[in-house]
Amino acid sequence: MAPNKHTPHVLIFPYPSQGPLNCMMRLAELLAISGLHVTLLNTNDTHLRLCLSSASLPAIPLLRFKSIPDGLPEDRPRDASLLRDVAESLNKNSRLLLYDLLLAMKNDEYSSDGFPPITCLISDGFFPSFVDLAEDIRLPCLSFRTPSACSMWAYLCIPKLLENGELPFGEGVDLDEVVQGVPGMEGFLRRRDLPEFFRGAKSADDPQLKFMSTVSAYSSKAKGLILNTAEVLESTSVHHIRAQIPVTYALGPLHAILDSYRSARSCTDASSHTSSLWQEDTECLKWLDLQTDNSVVYVSFGSFTTLTQEEFHELFFGLINSGHKILWVLRPDMVQGLAWTDEIKRALPEEQGRIISWTPQQKVLAHRAVGCFVTHSGWNSTLESIVEGVPMLCWPFFLDQQINSRFVSEIWRVGLDMKDIRNRDLVEKMVREMMEGESAARFRKSARDLADAVKESISDGGSSFREFHRLIEDIKSMSIGQQCDS
Question: What sections of the protein cross the membrane (predicted)?
Answer without folding.
Answer: none
